[in-house]
Amino acid sequence: MERSSIGNFQIISFNYRNLSLEEREEFIRTGYKGIMEEYCKKGIIRGYVSVETCLRIELYMDVSEDFHIEMIQRDFNSRNDKSYRGNEAVNYFLKVICGLDSVIKGEDQILVQLKKAYMENLEAGRTSSLLNIIFNNGIETGKKFRSESRINERNVSLDSIAVKFIKSKVETLEDKNIFIIGVGDLSRSILALLHKSEKCRLVMTNRSFRKSVELQKMFEGVQTADFHQKYEFVGNSDIIISATSAPHLVLEKERMRDILADGRKRLFLDLAVPRDIESGIGESENAELYHLEDIWDEYNKNIEKRDKIVEKYSYIINEQINKLFDKIERGNRYRMKRTEREGINGIQ
Questions:
Q1: What is the 3-state secondary structure (H, E, C) of 41-75?
Q2: Annotated catalytic, 54?
Q3: Number of helices and strands (H, E) in the chain?
Q4: What is the spatial distance between Cα 90 and Cα 270, in angstroms, rounded to a whole number?
Q5: pTM
Q6: pLDDT of 122-141, one tens digit each?
Q7: How far is it, in rounded angstroms, from Cα 268 to Cα 85?
Q8: Cα–Cα distance between 346 and 206 in angstroms, integer?
Q9: Residue 303 and residue 277 in contact, taking contact as beta carbons nearer than 8 Å
């Protein structure tokens, strides 16, 4: 049995800091997961967790001694990615899961996303004992940091900022027809905010009609639309919000020509990566199209206070790093003693 080492932990990051939205979209389309599976079959990678969010694609790996970062960068044909290994990787991972590498520092969504990605990869048998220890420690760290720092007391999150951004672009949301495409975590959070506080008419759709119906039970008065009727509902809407995980366009300009020519003003907010809404739709005289990069002004109004909170509570991450290293080292000592016992018994 090979000894687990923190030096085997490596991360490759493609995020909003080093790759544009277009470049992240293109990387997803390359089918990188197939390459990862090949590396696993060859034993070059012992396990991995892949994470895709609107701002980052990251691979958390337990690598063997045969792994070299240049190999996978070549196979990915990647540019401007960032890699971390060993202690540096652990430090980066804990900062990410605490939300300190997010545009909205301390936001809750990245913790949910990383936990969900870990559980999916764990159930699929892609993780390793080292990754299990690291991710369990990371989830604990993310919860502890938010609980003790109370960084989210003012509820500055991506969903709340998206709603604030929409409000800044229209006079009022009252009596507006709002069409939400997708029922993922972000779409659901936006739907909840609008349903709770705004006097607007809400319609949602998703490729899985069953999921839409299940979500409808949670929000009284929200209408559910068949995904194949989405253009019809876009035509009846003032605001369209799209945040699906589809690898292709959900709304295409050619299908929208008659709708865009009807004289009605519409605001489109595309929060997906890859993008859901064809960019040409925003060229219409009566359409305004915005993306993730357009909504950060609302966040910047709160950044100074959050920076002070991060500085004050950064000690939590250092404590958790030491706790993680101790746990890995105890595990190594246990495995070494067990191997020695088995060796002695074998000789006898």
A1: HCCCEEEEEEEECCCEEEEEEEECCCCCHHHHHHH
A2: yes
A3: 14, 10
A4: 33
A5: 0.64
A6: 999 999 999 999 999 999 99
A7: 40
A8: 59
A9: no
